[in-house]
Amino acid sequence: MTRAERRAAVTHRRSVVALIGAVVAAAVILVAWFPAGALIDQHRTLAQTTSALDHLNAENKALRAESKNLSNPSEIARIARQQFELIAPGEQAFQVLPPPGKAGGATDPYSGDPGNSPPVSPSAAPELPPGTEKAGQSAKVLSSHATQGTTASHAAAPSAPGLFGRILRTLEFWR
Predict the structure, then answer these.
(1) Is-above-0.70 flag for pTM?
(2) Domain ranges of the chain
């Protein structure tokens, strides 16, 4: 191999190494200044937003159809009968109940329904059936929730007996 051929081979190798270095440098710069991770995250966010928009458009279409149906008087009457058990003027409503003592399944009245028990006088409040909330218990619960950010002197006020204490318990939601 002659000297000229060696120089040509060395020059060729240098140019190949320079080309490979330039490609590597370009790749590093591209990754550093144009992160592929951010692009992938943007595509994922775009897909999620598109999915949410499609869901909202479908919901909007359903609400428009429901709105159109609710402008129909017969639909309003159907909903009033079905959901609120209302009747038209001049009609009479009847409710058929199962005979007492028989298990009617889903049509049984709720056992804790106060309409199934006799009236209770205000003086018999401590005699309420179990599971109902007594006035003293509600005051304790309300005062414990309301006094989390207040001082101890405010905590004792709602449990005070008499008219003032009842007024404070009644207006407890203002705290």
Answers:
(1) no
(2) 52-92, 134-175
